[in-house]
Amino acid sequence: MTRRIDSTDTAKALIAVLKEKHGELMFYQAGGCCEGTQPQCFEKGGYYLRMRDVCLGDIEGCEFWVDRDLYEYWKFSHFTLDVLDGFGVGGFSLETPLQKTFKIHYRLFSPEELKDLAPVKTAE
């Protein structure tokens, strides 16, 4: 199966640091104006999912959820979680005190990848 989301080694290293400090984690990426479009990292259960939010998969055992409208717009794209130095748009994500920001890189799936995409799950 073709994964819908992967991560860089830099993102994996930061997730390990955050897990050690906070325990189990989750990611959420919205498409709205207030929270921006950068992924936010929370303690697992620290963000309440809305009906029909979509889980693209997991990174290092952390589910990566997106807003349903964002999913509809980007469903033919592969996400790669990365990290930048500095503060992002939001201030609630767990990496903010470390002066880091999670970021997503997108690319379109190839025709071959589209034939074997991993299924998504939705919040009930």
TL;DR of this structure?
It comes from Pedobacter rhizosphaerae. The protein is α/β, with parallel strands linked by helices and about 120 residues long.
Could you characterize what this model shows?
By secondary structure, this protein is α/β, with parallel strands linked by helices. It has one domain (5-114): Hypothetical Protein Aq_1857, Chain: A (Sandwich). The protein contains three helices and eight strands; from the N terminus they run E-H-E-E-E-E-H-E-E-H-E. The chain has helices spanning 9-22, 68-74, 111-114; strands at 5-7, 25-29, 40-43, 54-59, 62-66, 77-85, 100-108, 121-122. The strands form two sheets. The protein has a five-stranded mixed beta sheet. A three-stranded mixed beta sheet has the order 1-6-7. The two termini are 24 Å apart. This is UDP-glucose 4-epimerase. It comes from Pedobacter rhizosphaerae. Pfam families: DUF779 (PF05610).
Mean pLDDT score = 92
Structural class, judged by helices and strands?
A: alpha/beta
Helix-strand topology string: EHEEEEHEEHE
In DSSP terms (H or I, runs of 4 or more residues), the helix count works out at: 3
- Indicate the radius of gyration in whole angstroms: 14 Å
The strand count comes to 8
Q: Taking strands numbered 1, 2, ... along the chain, how are they ordered across the largest sheet? A: 3-2-5-4-8
Spatial gap, N to C terminus: 24 Å
Largest sheet: 5 strands, mixed
CATH topology: Hypothetical Protein Aq_1857, Chain: A
Protein name: UDP-glucose 4-epimerase
Organism: Pedobacter rhizosphaerae
InterPro entries: DUF779 (IPR008497)
